[in-house]
Design a protein that fits this description.
Order of helices and strands: HH
Distance between the termini: 64 Å
Strand content: under 5%
Number of strands: 0
Largest sheet: none
Structural class: mainly alpha
Helix content: 25-40%
């Protein structure tokens, strides 16, 4: 199937389905785009995590 045949098939679809085709094409292209991984920085979570003083205590029997 060449591009012109594909375009003619897409053009006869209702707008909602054309949008779905467009979204699917974007989905297929996504893995080819480079994904940038955000690097963590030292102290990024400072004051966001708290460990209680009783962390190492044994749990209650009814737990």
């Amino acid at each position: 199937m060449d591009i012109q045949q594909l375009l003619s098939k897409i053009e006869i679809l209702p707008p909602e389905l054309q949008k779905q085709v467009y979204d699917f094409v974007l989905f297929l292209c996504r893995p080819q785009q480079k994904q940038f991984i955000k690097k963590r920085t030292v102290g990024e979570y400072k004051d966001k995590i708290r460990i209680h003083t009783d962390f190492d205590d044994s749990l209650h029997d009814d737990f």
